[in-house]
Structure formats: structure tokens, C-alpha cells
Write a sequence for this structure.
């Protein structure tokens, strides 16, 4: 995190703005009640913190997915039109136009459960029960050939599911890989011998019309 | 004259105005720079606006831009997303000047539509690793000490469609996922101190009240540094599309973290690794490995005029080249402009000294003699970082990235003044 500290220090030096003095607490607001926190604190972390009790099977998930998800994501989680594809794409991340899905890209299963439960279905959010969510997540795993058709996902076995791309991420390394080479004195004259146009936007003709769009 | 007559007189005046404007435009195009061929009727004849009434003070309790500016609006790109409810539009930066973006044309990005949340129903919860979990109402927030700050907000995907090559022919579309506003609010630090952060609290998760429940994790250092819980922008209440009544400002960091309709702040030991910080807003490199937590928006600039939507129409002679520059790591210290695709550069003039994490406006005043130009701008910030070319970025990251494209933009200005989005060697 050394890069981050430097950033914060640089920002502090660059912006010596007047901020209110921080004194004692003002006593504003009121204590949050346990049932209020429980109603809103729905996020689930990679270690399973936040998962409720429950379970759901691939078979139940198939029906639930068809009813709640397939209109956008397709019956087999393959995606409809421009909506997100949730299955497929294994081994494509280094290809041109990789296919990023739960199976090929998402590093944590907790993210799938959390998002489906908290933010989906689109236009009808926060209506899936815990058991329904376990079942739908089980079906998405099945669609990605990550579990068998008799699989039942539960709070107990949640962390045993291996996500294929779990090691596919690194923390932002621009400070090491980019900032030094992009911090050299800027060239002002004779910066290159020739300049050729290598690409034209108008060739693609995908820009919306200013008047009509 | 009664109300009705006056209305029809006003609309008649508008028609005359349009006709007169069209005639004047034709004259100007024929006359060129130096002298009018005959006396200008706009001067020699009494114009309708010079002898009739304009609107009364009751005509517009909250004014909109005049009709002649009706093309200065947000636009979206239909093919970009599956649905306009979870989508993005673009600020008309080609037509704006100065640095402050009016809320009404500042780009929008929502994941489940712009909701209407009344102030009276607003609640903000701080919980997790704090000494006292708290709930604030909107009125509570207004009783904390307040600050004013001007910051840019840039979507991490700004210029994302240009990674693989020049694609959209307009600066509104290529660099328009940005706005810059003066915010009024309370520092997040103030609210966190009111709840009391426990020593084991290392991360903060922030979440919106809309159905997308958009949430992001950030290190406690950032949360305690300069993050703002804002309820006014450019002096007035946030517009609903910008998060009314309360949004988060995360200076210099990608727009997705600027949670709108902010409802929950959870102090945690680690990041949630939510959908928006794993499956999205991560940067896949050529080898298939992806960068995460790429929060900072690096130094960037673009010429807003001339540009494809702002061709040169006035012919040869004095030409104002202008654009915007910004850096999420500090203040812009300078902008250079090239007329020849990057062979030679000259310093542009900053309208005001660069401000940390806010837009800077630059100008270069030239004498254009109708020559073709390959216009580029290149910003430098106070860390010494110089905006790279798109090819320099591709050399490090490959072509599969979507986010954080801060590469140099090229406009090919032709002899007739029209401009096109191109890439150069």
C-alpha cells in the first residue's frame, strides 16, 4: 500500500483547503437498531461473512433461473442480445475480445450470491429468498460446468466451490509499471519523423446522429 | 395587451428572430472576415427584440437554456448497452466552456435508473466496526460543519470504446463521461468520527439506495482523507440523476465509486469484492491477468473545439483551440498542443492555475490558414506524469482493456474545417 500512502500525501500537499476543525462528537443522528442494520446489511464477503442459512439445488435453480433470469441472461445463462452472459468463455481471457462470465472471470462465488440476492432480478430487486438465491447460484455454476447436475449449494459447502479465475487478479500496479515511464520530460520538438493516420472513426460509422439520437 | 395576445406576440417575435438569424448567417458566410458588403440589416433595421416585449418574470420560475441551444444536450449511444435503464450518456463537452458542468447536461450513469427519493424519507446508516452504529436523516447531515469543493467525476470507462481504435466521431462520445461540479457537503471523516471507527476497521463499504444497490469498497485511509458526503452541486440540490438527495464524492477516483443516493456506510476489515469491483471496473491485460482496485483516474486531456462536432466554420485567420485537462492524482500543471500529430508541441494557456482533482480549461490561440492539422493535447500533472499516447498504453496493457484509457486524442482537421477522430502512428 506504499503507493497509496504517497498518493494521499501528494493530494494533501496539493490541496491545502480550509476544512472544519474536528472537535468532539456533535451528538447528531441516533443509534441504529439491530433490526435496521440487519435489514440493510446484506453484503457478502469472500470468506462467506454475511451469508444466511439456507441451501438450493441445481434442479430448483434451473426453474428459478428460467422464471427470474432467463429473459435477459438466456435459459443456459448464455446471455440474450447485449445483456450479460453468465456462462462460457473459459480460457478466453488472453484472447482478443475475451468472454468474461461468472465461470471464466469472477474470482469469488460470494460476489455472485451477493449480487443476485441484493441487486437482481433487474427491475424486481431484493425479492429472492436465501434458498432461491443458493439455487440460482448453483444453476449458474452448473451452466459453467463447475458442478454436477445433482449439486446442492448451501452456506456450509459454499467455500468449497473453486472459482477458475480466483488467481487471475493483481492489485493495481500502475505505480510500478507505468508511472516512471510516463513521467519523463515531455518532448517538444522533433518528437517523431513521420506521422501517418492509422485509423479513421468514420470508417466504422457507429456514431449516433447528432440531430436524431 | 392581455396574457394571450402577449404570448402570441412573443412567439411571433421568435419566428422573426429565427428568420433574421438565418439571413445574418448567410451574409456572414459570404462576407468573410474583413468587411461587410452592405449595411447589416440587423443593425440598420429595428429588430423585433428591440421594439417588443420579452418574457415576464413569471415566465420561467426555473429557467431552461434558450431554444437556440437545444442541441447542447446529453446523448447516449444506443448500441452500447442492452437497456437505457442500466446505461450511460455523455456530457456535451464540445459545446461547453469554462470548467463547471451544469447538472442538467452532466453525463449520467445508473445501474437501475434514476430514482426519486424524497429528502424526508432519506436515511444514512453508518455501522460495522464503529463504536456506535448511527442513523442520520437529511436534516442531521445539514447540522454538521460543511465544506465546498470542486471535483471532476470521470467514469472509468470514459474513452473505453476507443481502446482498440478510433471508433466514435465526436468528443462528446469519446471523452464525455466526465463532469466537474462544485459540491457542498460534509466530509466522510466527520461522519465516521461521529460513529467512532474501531482500530480494526481498515475498509469502508459504501452503498446506494437504488435497486442496483451499487456498492464499492475503499481503504479507510481514503475515506478519512478527502471523501465528501455531498448534498448540493453547483449551489443547488443534486439533481435526481446525480443522486438526490445525497451522493458521495471520491476525489480523483473512478466515477463508479461516487455512490449516488448514498444510504449505507459499513466499516469493515476487508473489501466486499462486490460485482462492481471484480467482474466490472477491473482491467484485463494482454496475458489475461486483470488489475483490480484501479481506483485513480490518471492525468488526461482532450481538445473540445475544434473537434468533429465543432468544425471550423469561420474560415482562415484567428482560431481558438480549447479543451479540458484533469488528473486524479493532483493538479494539472500544463497542457501542450500539437498541430502536426505529435511531431512538435507548444504550451497552451491554462485559463486558471490547475486545481487538484478538478477540471482545467486550456486555450491555444493560433492563426489558421486553412492547412490540415492533426490536433492533439497532452497534459502534465504535479506528480510529473505526462499523458501518454494510446499506443504507449497499449504497449503496457494490450488491447482488451476497457477502463482507464487516458491516451492522447487526435482530431484530423481538414482544409474545409471539418474534423474527424483518427489515430496516428
Amino acid at each position: 500500500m506504499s503507493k497509496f500512502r504517497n498518493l494521499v500525501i501528494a493530494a494533501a500537499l496539493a490541496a491545502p483547503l480550509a476544512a472544519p476543525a474536528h472537535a468532539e462528537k456533535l451528538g447528531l443522528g441516533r443509534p441504529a437498531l439491530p433490526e435496521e442494520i440487519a435489514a440493510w446489511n446484506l453484503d457478502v464477503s469472500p470468506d462467506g461473512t454475511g451469508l444466511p442459512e439456507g441451501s438450493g439445488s441445481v434442479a430448483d435453480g434451473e426453474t428459478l433461473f428460467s422464471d427470474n433470469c432467463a429473459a435477459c441472461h438466456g435459459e443456459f445463462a448464455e446471455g440474450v442480445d447485449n445483456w450479460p452472459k453468465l456462462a462460457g468463455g473459459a480460457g478466453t481471457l488472453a484472447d482478443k475480445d475475451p468472454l468474461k462470465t461468472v465461470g471464466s472471470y469472477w474470482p469469488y462465488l460470494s460476489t455472485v450470491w451477493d449480487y443476485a440476492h441484493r441487486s437482481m432480478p433487474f427491475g424486481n430487486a431484493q425479492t429472492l429468498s436465501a434458498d432461491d438465491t443458493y439455487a440460482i447460484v448453483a444453476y449458474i455454476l452448473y451452466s459453467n460446468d463447475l458442478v454436477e447436475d445433482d449439486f446442492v449449494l448451501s452456506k456450509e459447502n459454499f467455500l468449497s466451490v473453486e472459482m477458475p479465475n480466483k488467481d487471475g487478479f493483481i492489485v493495481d500496479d500502475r505505480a510500478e509499471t507505468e508511472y516512471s515511464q510516463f513521467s519523463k520530460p515531455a518532448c517538444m520538438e522533433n518528437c517523431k519523423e513521420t506521422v501517418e493516420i492509422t485509423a479513421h472513426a468514420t470508417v466504422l460509422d457507429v456514431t449516433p446522429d447528432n440531430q436524431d439520437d | 395587451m392581455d396574457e394571450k395576445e402577449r404570448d402570441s406576440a412573443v412567439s411571433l417575435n421568435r419566428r422573426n428572430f429565427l428568420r433574421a438569424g438565418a439571413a445574418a448567417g448567410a451574409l456572414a458566410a459570404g462576407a468573410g472576415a474583413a468587411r461587410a458588403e452592405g449595411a447589416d440589416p440587423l443593425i440598420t433595421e429595428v429588430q423585433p427584440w428591440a421594439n417588443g416585449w420579452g418574457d415576464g418574470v413569471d415566465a420561467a420560475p426555473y429557467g431552461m437554456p434558450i431554444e437556440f441551444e437545444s442541441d447542447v444536450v446529453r446523448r447516449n449511444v444506443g448500441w452500447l448497452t442492452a437497456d437505457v435503464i442500466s446505461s450511460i450518456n455523455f456530457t456535451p463537452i464540445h459545446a461547453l466552456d469554462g470548467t463547471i458542468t451544469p447538472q442538467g447536461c452532466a453525463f449520467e450513469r445508473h445501474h437501475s435508473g434514476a430514482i426519486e427519493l424524497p429528502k424526508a424519507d432519506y436515511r444514512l446508516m453508518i455501522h460495522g466496526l464503529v463504536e456506535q452504529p448511527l442513523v442520520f436523516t437529511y436534516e442531521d447531515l445539514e447540522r454538521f460543519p460543511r465544506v465546498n469543493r470542486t471535483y471532476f467525476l470521470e467514469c472509468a470507462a470514459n474513452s473505453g470504446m476507443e481502446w482498440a481504435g478510433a471508433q466514435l466521431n465526436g468528443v462528446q462520445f469519446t471523452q464525455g463521461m466526465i463532469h466537474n461540479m462544485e459540491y457542498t457537503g460534509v466530509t466522510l471523516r466527520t461522519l465516521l468520527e461521529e460513529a467512532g471507527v474501531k482500530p480494526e476497521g481498515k475498509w469502508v463499504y459504501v452503498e446506494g439506495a437504488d435497486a442496483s444497490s451499487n456498492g464499492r469498497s475503499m481503504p479507510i485511509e481514503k475515506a478519512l482523507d478527502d471523501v465528501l458526503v455531498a448534498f448540493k452541486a453547483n449551489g443547488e440540490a443534486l439533481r435526481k440523476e446525480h443522486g438526490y438527495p445525497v451522493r458521495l464524492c471520491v476525489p480523483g477516483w473512478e466515477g463508479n465509486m461516487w455512490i449516488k443516493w448514498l444510504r449505507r456506510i459499513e466499516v469493515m476489515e476487508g473489501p466486499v469484492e462486490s460485482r462492481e469491483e471484480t467482474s466490472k471496473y477491473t482491467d484485463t491485460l494482454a496475458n489475461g491477468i486483470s488489475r483490480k482496485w484501479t481506483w485513480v483516474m490518471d492525468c488526461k486531456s482532450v481538445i473540445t473545439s475544434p473537434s468533429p462536432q465543432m468544425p471550423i466554420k469561420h474560415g482562415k485567420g484567428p482560431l481558438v483551440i480549447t479543451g479540458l485537462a484533469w488528473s486524479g492524482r493532483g493538479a494539472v500543471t500544463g497542457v501542450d498542443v500539437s498541430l502536426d500529430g505529435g511531431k512538435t508541441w507548444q504550451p497552451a494557456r491554462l485559463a486558471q492555475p490547475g486545481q487538484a482533482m478538478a477540471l482545467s480549461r486550456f486555450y491555444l490561440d493560433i492563426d489558421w490558414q486553412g492547412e490540415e492539422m492533426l490536433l492533439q493535447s497532452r497534459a502534465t500533472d504535479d506528480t510529473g506524469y505526462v499523458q501518454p499516447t494510446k499506443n504507449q498504453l497499449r504497449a503496457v496493457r494490450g488491447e482488451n482493456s476497457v477502463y482507464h484509457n487516458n491516451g492522447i486524442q487526435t482530431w484530423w482537421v481538414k482544409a474545409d474545417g471539418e474534423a474527424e477522430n483518427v489515430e496516428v502512428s
In short: Chain B has three domains: 3-63, 84-291, 300-422. The first strand of chain B starts at residue 75 and ends at 76. Chain B is about 15% helix and 30% strand.
